[in-house]
Amino acid sequence: MKSSLRQVLLGFGLYLGVGIWFAFGQGNGSPVKVTIQDEKQVVTEVVLPIDPTPGINFSPSNLGAQIRTAQNQTLHLSHFPIVFIDGQIGQPGQFGGQFEKVNQPLPMTAGGKPRQGFQSVFKQNDLRITLTAELIPTKPSEKEQKRKMDSVLMRYSVENTGMQPRKFGLKVYMDTYVVSNDGCLFAAPTMPNKILDGVELKDKTLPDYVQLLQQPDLKNPGYVAHLTVNLGTAIEKASRVVLSRHGAGGFNGWEMPAMQSMGDSALAIFFEPKEIKPGGKREFGYAYGKGVAVPAESEGRVEVQLGGSFEPGKTFTVSAMVKDPVGGQALTLELPKGLTLLEGKETQPVPQPLTDLPQSLVLWKCRVLEFGQFALRVRSSTGVTHTKMITIAPTEAGKKDAGN
Predict the structure, then answer these.
(1) How many helices (H) and strands (E) are present in the chain, helices listed first?
(2) Cα–Cα distance between 394 and 399 in angstroms, integer?
């Protein structure tokens, strides 16, 4: 273990050293001027191994969904959105509006792959609400390499198509029922070793996911459903989750008090009312099913650093630190013309951490062939691409040296 720890610390020290050298290594007398700019990361289709067999069942239900286990067992009794529009509160359609699209099949992915789910569009004056319900893969367990298709992503996109700002909020109400228990209770990683009943989760206590337990026993919970409320930067995270009793606060009001379930539990997911400017949009989302839904950009997160000399003919390093790597994850370095790979395979598997530090290091050694602007990319098999735009130009000192 000590030897493994030294290896990780040595690698991590190299990683830090690379960043420090790059920050301070280009002095006034350097023959080259180097500018490096991080482009916005791109999330594409995840290519980690996936078991395509659906591990959850779902069907449309009035701008919501009915979600059941793979054996068609109940995971909730009711499940529907309540909207806040400029002070009016109710289910879509209760104070006007109409559907433009109802339970239509989802279009294929950009890569031409079919998607399992449906889409509905509801128009309320100048607000256009689009629900996309889609079967998605979840985080693999420690014993499994393949991801399971066992959660349903519920994504609400709200656009203001008018000329005036509109205030919009979303509350999703769920009458919970797990397999055989109408009074199922809850657990959350932010409140470990506790059964939760009548609790409001917000701020520091709001976790990435909430567990719904068939039995109120952490050691023997029976079937465990997961409500994922953190789905990455592209989808707004819920502001709070209230664990309560069915019917608490009514079905058409905004607030819901945290009350003990008394054998009939319920919960509400809140996205607080905020102004949407003309032409603006808000994206809400959560996932519900058997597994924990993990956004591609946060799973096996990669941080890329460059260091070394960027003079033509000299060498530099590309260091990728991977946090919480997932099974089967690999990184691919893509170099444009003008840069060439010297050491390290173009595609490398991400090693599993050697210590309790959930981090792994992947390295490449490269050479600069000429001056110019270059897009260096590191692609992760989790579906995320990191791009660094490198501009290398001679300084006045460099031009003088070249002239001599």
Answers:
(1) 2, 27
(2) 6
Fold identical between 2-45+298-403 and 52-289?
Answer: no
Total-model pTM: 0.71
pLDDT at 47 over 70: no
Give the pLDDT confidence score for residue 76 in this predicted structure.
97
CATH label, 2-45+298-403, candidates 2.60.40.10, 3.40.190.10, 3.40.605.10, 3.40.109.10: 2.60.40.10
Domain chopping of the chain, boundaries = 2-45+298-403, 52-289
Report the percent of the chain where pLDDT is more than 70.
Answer: 85
pLDDT interval class at 299 (50, 70, 90): low
Flag whether pLDDT at 172 surpasses 90. yes
Q: Which of 155, 188, 149, 150 is nearest to 286 (CA)?
A: 155
Dig out the tokens for 121 from the structure. 């569009």
Task: Decide yes or no: CATH 2.70.98 for domain 52-289.
Answer: yes
Report, in angstroms and rounded to the nearest whole number, the Rg of the chain calculated over CA atoms: 25
- Whether the per-residue pLDDT at 238 is higher than 80: the answer is yes
Please state, in angstroms and rounded to a whole number, the distance separating the CA atoms of residues 122 and 110: 25
Residue 399 CB contacts under 8 Å (≥ 6 apart), including other chains: none
How many other C-beta atoms can be found within 10 angstroms of the C-beta atom of residue 270? 22
pLDDT tens across 77-110, in order? Answer: 999 999 999 999 999 988 888 999 999 999 886 5
